[in-house]
Amino acid sequence: MKLKTLSFLSLFVFCDLYAQKADNLSAAYNGNTGVFETPNARILDDWSMRFFLNIDKPYRYYGVVATPLPFLEANFHMTEVDGIAGFSDSDGYGNYKDKSLGIKILLKEETKYTPSVLFGIDDMWGTALYTSKYIAMSKNISYFDITFGYAKGRLGGEDLRKYTANTNNSGSFNNNSITFLKDRDWGGGKPFGSIVFNPSPKLSLIGEYSPINYSKDKINPFLNGKQYELPKSKWNYGLKYKYSKNTILSLSYQRGNQISFGYTYQFSFDRTGMFDHLADSKWKADKKKKSEYKNISTKQLSEKLSNEVAAEKFKNVKTAVHDNKIWSEINNSRYNNDLQAVGRAISTIDEVAPKNYDTIYLTLKDKELPLKTFKVNRVEFDMYENEKLSDNYMQNALIITDNIEKSYDEFSNKKDVFKTKSYNDNRFNFDLAPKVRTILNHKDKPFAMKLALRATSSYAISEYLNLNAALEHPFYNSGKDLTSEPLEDERLSLRSNVTDHFIYNETQLPYLSTTFSSRLPFNSFFKTELGYLEYAFAGIDLEWYKPLLEETFGVGLQYQNVYKRKIDGMIKVNKDYSYDAKFLNLYALISPKYDIHMGLKIGQFLAGDKGVKLDLSRHYKNFTIGLYATYTNSKEVFKNEENQGYIDKGAYLKVPLEVFTYKNVKKRLTYGLSPWTRDVGQYARTLNSLHPMNNSENNTQIQKKYIQNLKK
Length: 712
Description:
Layout: H1 2-19, E1 48-56, E2 59-69, E3 72-87, E4 90-108, E5 116-122, E6 132-141, E7 144-153, H2 176-182, E8 190-197, E9 203-209, E10 235-242, E11 247-254, E12 258-268, H3 287-291, H4 298-311, E13 315-322, E14 325-331, H5 338-352, E15 359-366, E16 369-377, H6 378-385, H7 391-397, E17 399-401, H8 404-412, E18 428-442, E19 445-460, E20 465-477, H9 498-503, E21 508-520, E22 524-532, E23 537-548, E24 553-565, E25 573-591, E26 596-604, E27 610-620, E28 623-632, E29 648-656, E30 668-673, H10 700-705
Parallel strand pairs: 14-15
Antiparallel strand pairs: 1-2, 1-12, 2-3, 3-4, 4-5, 5-6, 6-7, 7-8, 8-9, 9-10, 10-11, 11-12, 13-14, 15-16, 16-17, 18-19, 19-20, 20-21, 21-22, 22-23, 23-24, 24-25, 25-26, 26-27, 27-28, 28-29, 29-30
């Protein structure tokens, strides 16, 4: 008896030691951090992402989950229902598929004695097939993780038909899901819960109670289609196994009559990349190199410094010296992070410049257009680079300004100072890369992909005038036979005919335009672009922008006059209709703590509908995650019900290309996701918009927050 007791206590202690390492951050079948059918009160770590494919017949779930904020988890997934046809008039689409967006908000973190508390919403927009709202609490007790919650909606066993809206347009504010969420009555729901036993960091044994009443589902594979047997139990049992650092496998016995399994891949954005990067050590000058800088004229010094900085692969390098100061200009063609580029250029100058030069001005440019100037004391920079000064000290010591003229007058004492010609002045740039385009949830095919080879080039006609071109040829197109059904007539069909562009399987000219950029008085910027602006439109775009309060805010104006391009010819334009768009562009850094930026585009969109586009984005280590929504007076402009009241919305992710390679590459891959393509709230896409939502990770305030990049 004593031996049995001792063995049991030993097992208890062994499990208890290992259980503390289990994070219980695996996915429920619908992708939420949770168990199988029910969530828990936990979310993924900040700046993490999860991809999943789970088969729980008659359902199949696949999608992506991310944490755009440390207290917020967002979920976008598809639910495929086996045995129920998606469209009665299209066999190619296959089973019924429903798009779903959900969030989990962590209200309180778990402590030693108290549970974590969370509020969540499933399927928060649209037809409300699977909509729920819930409160959950989770607590880790030794080797157990216990969750208890209360839910309304589908998870709470309700029939969602009673929340039906008075419109069929699921993209408007007046939709079934919003009708449910606006109901403040929390009665009529049901409790749910789970117990997770973690015998090791890799293995979890699970039991859960799920109150979902499947007989009340609107799209019901148990009562229609292949006649799956209705659930016999509300209890589910199973296990999860952490196969690797990123991969989790699930196996469960669901509802008393179904064996289900799932695959999850989750990761953090703080990884250095898929491959080990080549060493990117700073250049160090030897004695011979330093001796070249003795007893030379200021002109010779300027030329040699430009040459050294250009050797670091920066472009359009110019340098001047005056009294005890050095002025240098660079086009950052090497790093995604501008502050890192500034630090590398200053470090290069510091290596060889004579010691009597104690102040360095480094100006960042877009080609030859000056953007902002960084001023630093050379001794302080050297001490910071060698870990002898704190981050806080350097944040105050480094001066960043967009008043280039004032900085140059300070440097030159308003005298005529020699400045070198532009070193590494590559007027012509060329790139060849694959281009991937996708269409999701088309009635003929749920997923179609078009792969093309895109050649892009630019030529600097002068300092501020550039010629830009792109040519694209497809080599694979799984959607070339899709049908196209624009929602409006030829004049108002601005984006709903996107399928026509997709199925066109010949060489295309994405853009061919000239851009002119310059600085204007009051430290403002002006840009114009003329030509074929994008796939759909040709015309002119005019933009003015003024940053305010060290880029904490900004204000701009924008005007577009465009014609629709014909799809079956690279340079053909339909001149029957002309479109105007006029905007007031506003920008605000709304949270330096979380690096959150907001942009507003207020005015008239191309179809004549008037309203506002809200864009929110967050940045981290050159990654960007963002979302947008556009609301206009579409009911007064459009005739089709699917456009009337529609909120154009979506999300996007920008990933630095260096994640997929072994060296620094100043490029980012962008992938956008929107539930539908409509004609509401549209404008022509342009190159290098001045509105800073395109590059807000290089905001002055954020650069000072991450001052460590200066010495990387």
